[in-house]
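Researcher: I'm preparing a figure for a lab meeting and need a structural model of a single chain. I don't have an experimental structure, so a prediction will have to do for now. The sequence is pasted below. Please return the structure as tokens so I can convert it later.
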Amino acid sequence: MPRGKAALGYAQYLPKDLSLHTQAQLNDMMCMALGGRVAEEIFFDSVTTGASDDLDRVSKIAYTQIAKMGMSPKIGQVSFPEGGGDKLYRPYSDQTAKLIDDEVRELIDRMYQRTKVLLLEHREKVEQVGELLLEKEVITTKDVVVAIGARPFEMPISYQEIVDASWTRDEDKSVMADPKPLSDDKPSGGESTTPTPAAATFTEDRDRFT
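Model: Understood. Here is the structure written out token by token.
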């Protein structure tokens, strides 16, 4: 979650091994993307152009739900193709096009208000994260947890494994770290006791499973 002139601040999302998303998950993704724009409105009483990519992402998710995934009762269980090079043909009427636009706008408005309620409820935590960004420029998951506490709900297994691995990473466990002798005994015949990095890694793996 860096802050700087080049990117005007951006969030990095960890990849998830998910091939399917529920409607609730898609809505959560929209709220997450709207967080920056809502924060501008709450804390600065104004908005900037910094949310352009987020709004584009939100609009695509909303149109996907309404026009392609059959997640709108008013549109029904249909999936309309995305607009291609031929703009003269649409597989639906002008009335349906207006209905899709209205449904998308209503969905985004609901997610915007939901995000606003959440940020107002946790306003102090948002301010703490903002102060941390001003102080450190770049913050990680560990920094956020230290500042405002752990997530109130269980994390997916894949996400938890990534976080745990990043927290426990240690130079001493790196293959490129200075190799350590296998034993304290001095060798006979002048042979060196310093193993190669590969040998050190093999020894650590052997000790771990024995």
